[in-house]
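Sequence, please.
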């Protein structure tokens, strides 16, 4: 009996048909798509997760110096508010087009009392107050004053107290102005570190 077979398109023996992405044009398109994907990924990371900043000024000396390169965490504050001691980057109330970097000293509901440069925090948990221990300072200022922090606001100061333009001068920082928390210091290489953030108390 005569056998029949279905007709099949066959490539010549010893050769393989190239897929689209194996062709020269296909490889070009693949590279273009890879670059576009990388750009989109980087844009999403920068827009919603982290953002690089270069410090300009000396208001946070000696912890953060002029010209240092920081990575700002923009995620954490979607889950909880800034904590005392955090170093934050924010749109400055006196200059909304500029970003400032300062340290959170007073939380919503706090009364911040400054006497001869030492800071006492009074709130519902500590009605008699506690003295804020600030090991990041190299010297105390001669400042005096009392500031009440309203809800949804923060009292911020630079570590270089004599050279910082902060809440002592322009008032409270609204929470919506805060962009993120300084998380990493990358440059210069010899200063790479996770930035200090927590306070200790002296009762």
């Amino acid at each position: 009996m005569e056998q029949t077979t279905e007709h099949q398109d066959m490539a010549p023996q010893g050769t393989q048909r190239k897929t689209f992405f194996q062709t020269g044009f296909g490889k070009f398109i693949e590279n273009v798509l890879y670059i576009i994907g990388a750009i989109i990924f980087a844009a999403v990371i920068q827009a919603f997760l982290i953002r690089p900043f270069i410090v300009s000024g000396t208001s946070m000396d000696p912890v953060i110096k002029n010209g240092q390169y920081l990575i700002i965490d923009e995620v954490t504050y979607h889950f909880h508010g800034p904590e005392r001691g955090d170093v934050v980057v924010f749109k400055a109330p006196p200059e909304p087009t500029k970003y400032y970097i300062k340290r959170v000293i007073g939380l919503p509901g706090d009364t911040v009392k400054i006497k001869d440069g030492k800071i006492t925090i009074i709130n519902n948990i500590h009605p008699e107050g506690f003295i804020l221990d600030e090991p990041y300072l190299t010297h105390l200022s001669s400042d005096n004053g009392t500031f009440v922090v309203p809800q949804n606001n923060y009292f911020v100061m630079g570590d270089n107290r004599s050279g910082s333009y902060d809440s002592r001068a322009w008032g409270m920082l609204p929470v919506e102005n805060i962009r993120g928390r300084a998380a990493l210091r990358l440059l210069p290489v010899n200063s790479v570190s996770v930035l200090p953030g927590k306070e200790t108390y002296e009762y």
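The two ends are 105 Å apart (CA to CA).
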